Structure formats: C-alpha cells, structure tokens
From TrEMBL:
Keywords: Oxidoreductase
Mitochondrion in keyword set: no
Annotated Acyl-CoA dehydrogenase/oxidase N-terminal domain residues: 48-138
Acyl-CoA dehydrogenase C-terminal domain mapped to chain residues: 258-396
Keyword Oxidoreductase: yes
Protein name (Swiss-Prot/TrEMBL): Acyl-CoA dehydrogenase family protein
InterPro entries in alphabetical order: Acyl-CoA_DH_C (IPR013107), Acyl-CoA_Oxase/DH_mid-dom_sf (IPR046373), AcylCo_DH-like_C (IPR036250), AcylCoA_DH/ox_N (IPR013786), AcylCoA_DH/ox_N_sf (IPR037069), AcylCoA_DH/oxidase_NM_dom_sf (IPR009100)
Top-rank taxon: Bacteria
Length: 420
C-alpha cells in the first residue's frame, strides 16, 4: 500500500518534457464522509460553485498550467469515494448519485468533471474483480487519493491492439489519453500479460519508471491534460485479469458511459445557463428587434423561440440521463442476466447519444441567441462548444443509435464491451 504522500499548496507550471515526479496537490483539510445522496449532491454543488469562476482561465491555460487547486478541491470533497461499497467502508451510493454529481460539476467545468471518470470505473472494477487489491486501494480513495488511467494507446490497428506488456513482474509501454494520471496517486494500466490475456495493473504514480507528459494540445477539455504516460520497467504489485470482466454480463461499461453522458449533459446545461445570463445582463436587441419596438434582447420573439427550444432539449437530455441512471440503479453493479445488462447499456447509450448532440448544439446556439458581442474572447463562451465537440467524439454516437435500433427492431442484444 502506498505510504503517505506529500501534498503541497501551490500551482504547478507544466514542463513540456515528461515529468518523473507528479505535480504536488494539497488536500484542503480532512476528507468528509458523504453517506447519502443528499450529502453527495451538496458536496458537488459546493465544488461546482468553487470551480465556476476559474473555468475560463483553466481552459485558456490548457496544459501550460496544471489545475492543482481545482483538483485539490475535487480530491478533498469526499466525492471520490461515493461509490465504494458499504462493506468496504464506503457509502455504497449508486449511479443516480454519480450521474447527478458529475452533471453538476460538468456544468461548472467539464474538464475537472472528466478527470475522475476513469477513477469511478476503476472503483467499480475493483469492487467486482479485485477483492484482494481493493482493501489496499480503497483506503487511499476514501482519504482523497485518486486513481488515474492509462488504458488507451496510439499506433495500433484498433483500440484493443495493445503493445504495453507485463513480463517478469515488470510493466513496459506507452499510453495516451491518460486522463487524471498526471495528478493521481495511482495509475491503472492495461497491458498484455505473459499468458496473452489482458491485465489491469495498478502502480503508484510516483513509482520509479513512471513518467507522465503534458503533451495535450486539443481544442476542448484542455484542462484534463490527458497526455502521454511512459512506463519503463515499473514493478507491478497489484494486478487483475481484465479479460474476464467482459467475458460475463457486466455493467462496468454502462456505468463508465453514464459518467460520460453526465459530462455532456452538464456541458449543455452550463452553456444554457451562460446564454441565459448573457441575454438577461449583456445582450442588446438586434436592429430588426428595435425596429419592431422591442427594447431588450429577451423580448425578441426569435430569441425567445430559440431559447425555449434549446431549454426544452437540455431538459430532455437531463431526463434521459436520470432515466438511464435509475435503470442502472435497479440492475446493480453485477447484472443478473445478459438481457438486463443489455437493458442498462442501451439506456445509457440513448442518454449519451442525445446528450452529446444537445451539448454541441447548445455550445453553438449560444452565439445565435446572444449575438456578435458574445463572441468576444474575454468571455471564452466558445469553450462550451469546444468542450462538447471534443468530448462527444470519445466514442461513436452513430453506433449507439445503431445498437438501439437493432434491439428495438430485431431483438439483437448490443455487444458486451465498455464503449456502449
């Protein structure tokens, strides 16, 4: 088990070279115990309020400045442990809580909301497949120490064509899209074991041979800093057989995708909220509206129509997200059958597909509503569209609609993987 880490206040200016040591964070006081849905929602509401004022600056900074203060607030909030089972010392809160917590944070800053996305998946994986490992890692999680991920690679023929290997108890490989890894306490790394099966290894972030770079240069979700991680002869103490997780009916993928859906729905809500604030406080009526005797932008009937239509679609996305979360609540972490697993996956697929479309729409429609002046760089309102567009292509929306149709029209169950 990882011994006490040193947590230091202060911003960390990222170097472009891979850094051997993680940037320092500060846990802001003791980590609270959140035992109920209401506790978690209140903590997320407080965190969102603290994050919102700095969201535009963090977006502008991108990978140049690691958002250590914002991440310290996240890690100290108690939210990292909300899904840890009761028997393991956690509150055992379910998908409805996780979806709402994520949505609230994403409405304020979706980059910070995405940082623990894989963390929650990994907590679930440990609950089902890591009985010997979780007693070591869950204590750290409850103390506010996050698990980052290093699952994706570049250069292979497909997403599962991995080159990272574990041999002789040593891990070697290069990963990309390592959201959360830069500032985590642990990193979960997918690799091929000596028997050819997929292994999930958990290594300390500050272990010798671990280097995480800040080579993250994208148009949106910039503050996630999901760059390259390199593992060179890293000793592996904790590992599990990851292949078996998808050899049986599972809800790991659905629960992971639920968080992604909540991020999209949160982005849509955040864009709508900023459009409302701008229209009420800053927007001037168009020349045509003035000629029609409207003195305020919010009186323009076309603005009212566009805003009303967008607000309705955002509310519909929120409703789909809640429905998907309730479906997963009812099924549980270990589904009783393949058909129930399919039901959960498809409910989340609908919420993710529609939520992604609405988020992109809201980020663009904001400017049609608010007018030319809203495009001034000082407002950074374009971050909503950039964040939505970047995050929405995490996995193909078209395939989600395809599998929904296949189920409705031909009773074909969707594939049993983590991207649906």
């Amino acid at each position: 088990m990882r011994r006490g880490a040193k947590w230091i206040v202060g911003a960390f200016t990222a170097a472009r070279a891979g850094n051997a040591k993680p940037p320092s964070l500060t846990r802001l006081g003791g980590v609270p115990t959140l035992t109920t849905h209401a506790d978690a929602v209140a903590a997320a509401t407080d965190l969102a309020a603290a994050l919102a004022p700095g969201a535009a600056e963090r977006d502008r900074n991108g990978a140049e400045v690691v958002p250590t203060e914002a991440l310290a607030r996240l890690d100290s909030s108690g939210l990292l442990g909300v899904t840890i089972p009761v028997e393991d010392g956690g509150p055992g809160l379910g998908p409805s809580t996780l979806a709402e917590v994520t949505r609230l944070i994403a409405a304020a800053d979706p980059a910070i909301a995405q940082v623990p996305q894989a963390h929650y998946l990994l907590v679930d994986i440990l609950a089902v497949h890591g009985p010997e490992i979780r007693k070591h890692l869950y204590a750290d999680v409850l103390a506010g120490r996050r698990i980052g991920n290093a699952l994706a690679e570049r250069g292979g023929k497909h997403a599962q064509d991995l080159r990272t290997r574990i041999a002789g108890g040593r891990l070697n490989g290069v990963k990309y899209y390592t959201t959360g890894a830069l500032t985590s306490a642990w990193i979960a790394v997918s690799a091929i074991g000596e028997d050819g099966r997929l292994v999930l290894a958990f290594v300390p972030r500050d272990a010798a041979g671990v280097a995480v770079d800040t080579d993250w240069d994208v148009i949106g979700q910039r503050a996630t800093i999901s760059g390259t991680a390199t593992f060179t002869d890293v000793p592996v103490e904790f590992a599990l057989d990851y292949t078996r997780a998808y050899e049986v009916p599972q809800q790991l993928g659905a629960r992971a995708q639920l968080v992604h859906a909540a991020i999209e729905v949160g982005i849509a809500g955040g864009a709508l909220a900023d459009a409302r604030a701008y229209l009420r406080d800053k927007a001037r009526p168009s020349t045509e509206a003035v000629r029609a005797s409207f003195s305020r932008a919010v009186e323009d009937p076309h603005v009212m129509y566009r805003y009303g239509r967008l607000a309705t679609r955002v509310r519909a996305a929120e409703a789909l997200l809640k429905d998907a979360a309730r479906t997963l609540d009812a099924i549980g972490l270990v589904p009783p059958s393949a058909s129930s697993a399919a039901e959960g996956s498809l409910a989340v697929a609908a919420a993710k597909a529609f939520g992604s479309e609405v988020a992109v729409e809201a980020g663009s429609e904001l400017f049609a509503l608010c007018g030319t002046s809203s495009a001034a760089s000082k407002y950074d309102l374009d971050r909503h569209w950039r964040n939505a567009r970047t995050h929405s292509v995490h996995d193909p929306v078209d395939w989600k609609y395809h599998h929904l149709a296949a189920w409705e029209l031909s009773d074909l169950q969707p594939p049993n993987h983590g991207q649906l």
